[in-house]
Amino acid sequence: MYLLLLAVWLILNGKVTMEIFIFGVVISAVLFLFMCRFLDYDMRREIMLFRLAPFFVRYLWTLVKEIVKANVCVLKIIFSPDVQAEPAFVYFDTDLKTGTAKMLLANSITLTPGTITVSVEGNRFCVHCLDRELADGVEDSVFVELLKEMEEKEAKWS
Question: Residue 68 has what pLDDT?
Answer without folding.
Answer: 94
